[in-house]
Amino acid sequence: MRRWACGPLGSALVGIVAVPVAPASAAAAWGGSVALASDDVFRGASQSEHAAVAQADAHWRSPEGWFVGAWATSIGAQRATFGDCELDLYGGRGWLLGERAVASLRYRRYTYPTSAQGRRYDADEIAAALEFDDRLVLSAAASPDASRYVGAGWALRRRTYAYEASLRQPLTQDLAFVASAGLYDTRDLYGASYRAWSAGLAGKAGPLDIGLVRFGVDAAARRIFRGDSAQGRWALSAAWRY
Predict the structure, then answer these.
(1) Contact 162, 184 (CB under 8 A)
(2) What pLDDT does 49 receive?
């Protein structure tokens, strides 16, 4: 069954939202996952200051490829900024392009319901993706209203863009090499753009999907993000999908 992930460098490792977007049966279907991860990495930077997090997803998809769902994660060490949790709502549609490719379009709403700053961190995003042979994913995303507190004060409702590519190369029946690279245009938000990458292994251990991935960023990202949140590290995750 073809699946599309919300982004190769999106939040979580094997816990990222993965929804079947192509028609797979005559009936609609529910699905989701529950995951634990040693880090919550979003586009190269740790959102939990390298603390472990718990994550969960629930989604519904139609036989025609429409999907809608909700994804949540604990925040970890950055709860003073973002609150106790992040809750994302998403929806979209996927289309089969012949026998070897899938296209998808999705909307995602990032929310931080317990943040002391209220809705300032909430943001919208539109993304499009192309997947080839269940191995290569190319995606582009745009947000019109990202907000962050930077050195000069609040940067409110600024435009950001993300361009990503990810690869999954099977090694055995239950083990694959995974890698990704991304370019993030955050000039309107942070005054600079940056690049990030990841590489590692993803596999199955009984009922669990296991991932061990090394994340890295360029010097620009280390200047943008405070502390050691943009210092490359290994991260481990385990997810049970239903």
Answers:
(1) yes
(2) 83
**What is the reported pLDDT for 2?**
42
Q: What are phi and psi of 56, to 5 degrees?
A: -150, 150
SS (H, E, C) 198-232: EEEEEEEECCEEEEEEEEEECHHHHHHCCCCCCCC
Task: Count the Cβ atoms, other than its own, within 10 Å of residue 3.
Answer: 17
Look at residue 131 and give its three-state secondary structure: strand
Look at residue 58 in the predicted model and tell me its pLDDT: 96
pLDDT, residue 78, reads 65
Judging by DSSP bridges, how do beta strands 101-111 and 123-132 pair with one another? antiparallel
Q: Give the closest residue to 18 by CA, choosing from 99, 125, 175, 131.
A: 131
The CATH number for 44's domain is 2.40.160.40
Long-range contact pairs involving 104-110 (C-beta distance under 8 Å, separation at least 24): 104/4, 104/21, 104/128, 104/129, 104/131, 106/6, 106/67, 108/6, 110/86
Quote the number of domains for the chain: 1
Domain around 29: 4-241
Cβ neighbours for 18, distance < 8 A, ≥ 6 positions apart? 3, 4, 5, 6, 33, 241
pLDDT along the chain (242 residues), means of 10: 41 48 67 93 89 94 94 78 86 93 96 81 96 94 90 83 96 95 96 95 93 94 84 91 89
